[in-house]
Design brief:
Blueprint lengths: L2 H5 L1 E7 L2 E8 L2 H8 L2 H9 L1 E2 L2 E2 L7 E5 L2 H16 L8 E3 L9
Antiparallel strand pairs: 1-2, 1-5, 2-6, 3-4
Length: about 100
């Protein structure tokens, strides 16, 4: 197995049993820690999908290994960010539609 494949794996955050986003991390523990950071939770609580909050205080969250479709969505997002010249160290991809915020 290539060294890079051993270092980074793909995980999915489910909220109320709904896959919401895919992210890369070195381990499940690392993925859970990243998703548990206060700034990350605040961002998800602020964002909307189809007009509804992505995350509410009492929602059930689960982090699990991503399936092949979820990993492919992350690979695509990472490639697009690389083309735009953005840092992809903490790349993630939403698996649901996200409402645009008004300017």
């Amino acid at each position: 197995m290539p060294a890079k494949a051993r270092q980074t794996r793909c995980f999915t955050l489910e909220i109320n049993r709904r896959p919401v986003l895919a992210l890369s991390a070195a381990s499940l523990r690392s993925a859970k820690a990243r998703i548990g950071e206060a700034w990350f939770i605040e961002e998800l609580e602020r964002m909307r999908s189809n007009g509804k909050p992505i995350l509410r205080p009492r929602d059930a969250c689960l982090v699990r290994p991503a399936n092949s479709e979820e990993a492919a969505a992350l690979d695509l997002e990472r490639a697009m960010e690389q083309v735009r010249g953005e840092d992809v160290k903490y790349c993630f991809a939403f698996l649901i539609e996200i409402n645009r915020e008004p300017n």
